[in-house]
Amino acid sequence: MSNKPIYILNGPNLNRLGRREPEIYGTTTLAEVEQSCRKAAGDRSLEFRQSNSEETLIDWVHEAIDEGAGIIINPAAFTFTSLALLDALKMFTGPIIEFHISNIHRREQIYHRSYVSMTATTVMAGLGAAGYPLAVEAMEMLIRAKKR
Questions:
Q1: Which positions are annotated as active-site residues?
Q2: Is 15 annotated as a binding residue?
Q3: Is residue 43 part of an annotated ligand binding site?
């Protein structure tokens, strides 16, 4: 197994998980999500991060380009607005999972066009916060298969 970590990057407002629109996002906190991801990762190291700043997320993608085995990204609102994030992700040569807690395709029309999907290896959406550890398991499979 590679020593390189999986980067799990979370975008704006995800620091409010557990309190933000629980009818959509549930009551699980981001700290609880991180714990479940670390458990799912086993011996694989994780860089689990959250920022409300587009600039910071892009800097972390740049770091992952040099240091990471894979990226799981929940870009939140930047999914639908950030060409700069798309451009950064396009430079990553490993697998990318675009992750959403809700099924964005069952939501309002504004949530249906993802820039991140243009470069993501795969998209996981609608599994709730419980989907994060499944994304870690899927990432391990993609890394082993060397999928982009």
A1: 25, 100
A2: no
A3: no
